[in-house]
Design a protein that fits this description.
This protein is an alpha/beta fold and 246 residues long. The protein contains 9 helices and 10 strands. It has helices at residues 3-8, 16-29, 31-38, 58-66, 79-88, 90-94, 131-140, 175-185, 239-243, and strands at residues 48-52, 71-76, 98-102, 115-121, 141-151, 189-195, 200-206, 212-213, 216-217, 233-234. An 8-stranded mixed β-sheet has the order 3-2-1-4-5-7-6-10, with helices on both faces. The longest helix is centred in the first third of the chain and has 14 residues, at 16-29. The termini are far apart. Mean pLDDT is 82; it is low at 213-246.
Length: 246
């Protein structure tokens, strides 16, 4: 097995010397796609954020800057990624704004309804399921919470197929597959930005708020997932989330 093959096999769960190099390179290689994805976040002020599959920790740092009043919990399957994320964000760990844990997205060590925002940059390709993992994200989000997925591959570029045999455990999903999986996991509103030219995807999924009034359940049209949106409906634009109050 060549050195490049060994390196790419470290993409899923970085280990050893090559894994350390891979994690460090992620912070630079994924910066542009991550920043593009963050531009889609609704104008809210989350208090608790989960950064899932945190890699080299660069996106944790960016989110901390974007939301100066928020606390971030970062999770990754790889001990090397956890170590790197801690180094990159050591000051915010010391001041209590950041916590980094090693764990599995399919069985996260977090209580129900804890987070306002969950993010996943360039990582759901490797998640168990990933339907079962999306259900875990739904569980840890508060009602009204938002789940951001950002993928550099949209499942429509035939040139990306070469990576399937090179990168261990890689699966590339298209927007229809991801939208269906999120809906099946319970998310009531899934909005997609598909950059056809760059073959990249950004999805925002919302966990709807409960609809209870003095006399019981309110009509679905008045629920907080967005006026008139039924569970599983995809919005027409990412601005729908802001117009809906998210």
């Amino acid at each position: 097995m060549g050195i490049l093959t060994l390196l790419f096999h470290n993409t899923r769960k970085p280990e050893g010397l090559l894994g350390r190099w891979m994690v460090s390179s992620m912070n630079h290689a994924h910066a542009a796609i991550a920043d593009w994805g963050m531009c889609h976040l609704p104008k809210t002020d989350p208090v608790e954020i989960a950064e899932l599959g945190c890699g080299g920790g660069r996106n944790v740092r960016q989110l901390l800057r974007r939301y100066p009043a928020a606390r971030i919990t970062a999770l990754d399957y790889s001990a090397i990624s956890v170590e790197k994320t801690k180094r990159v964000n050591r000051r915010d760990i010391q001041n209590g704004r950041c916590h980094v844990v090693q764990g599995d997205v399919a069985r996260m060590p977090f209580e129900d309804e804890r987070f306002d925002l969950a993010t996943a940059f360039e990582t759901v390709y490797f998640w168990p399921g990933p339907g079962e993992s999306f259900r875990e994200v739904y569980r840890i989000l508060k009602p009204g919470g938002v789940f951001l997925i950002v993928n550099e591959s949209d499942g429509a570029n035939p040139h990306d197929n070469k990576w399937l045999s090179v990168i261990d455990g890689l699966r590339i999903f298209n927007k229809e597959q991801l939208s269906a999986l999120l809906t099946e996991a319970g998310f009531s509103q899934v909005t997609v930005d598909h950059d056809l030219k760059a073959h990249r995807l950004c999805l925002l999924a919302v966990r709807s708020k409960p609809c209870f009034g003095a006399t019981g359940s309110l009509p679905k049209a008045l629920c907080s997932a967005g006026a008139g949106s039924e569970p599983g409906q995809r919005g027409n634009s990412l601005g729908d989330l802001e117009r809906s109050g998210f």
